[in-house]
Design goal:
The protein has 215 residues and is mainly alpha-helical. The protein has a two-stranded antiparallel ribbon with strand order 1-2. β1 and β2 form a beta hairpin.
Amino acid sequence: MKRMRPSVETSIESDAIAVEHTLAGDRDAFRVLVERHSRNVYRLAYRMTGNQHDAEEVVQEAFLRAYQKLSQFAARANFGTWVYRIAANYSIDRMRQKKSEDSNRALPPRETEDGTEMDLMSTVPDGAPSPERLAQSGQLATHMRRALSQLTPAERTAFVMRHWGGSGIEEIADALKSSTSAAKNTVFRSVQKLRKALEPFVERRGQARAMGTEL
């Protein structure tokens, strides 16, 4: 008999139980929540900050804040969404601080066994719309990272949460502390800027493909 995969509702219920046990003094229960959601939070943090060091700091701070504010967490809410939003808020603060200090640290590209560049930025859910689909190619990772760095903290947050995190407009608005209409505009503006920034590279790839000279 084929086993059914746990539903979203089951996952939320399981998180709610872990939260309840944590509030009752069971710290191991919170470790379960960290293990369950840290990967998604790290992906968000890395894509927003652009480097491993800051992403790891965001993850640690997000779960620390979640633990400290756990009594404020609504039992029927989605813990994953809640800690994701905390991470987004802290990432925004972190990016603004880094920008003011002008001390951007870039994560060096990693190489695979065949020498081609590999970057965490290239890990994007299947079926993502353009221009975020461009990041599926390792060859575009550097171009995408540079384009993202040109966005404002709010624009980068809106883009990452919407097109890589699958967040709703209301969640983005909450993270940006803005109205839903303003959040929609920020998402739209981020996509337009990325398309414009990546357009020259896309055109070069198209020309190379047409001439049969693409690597």
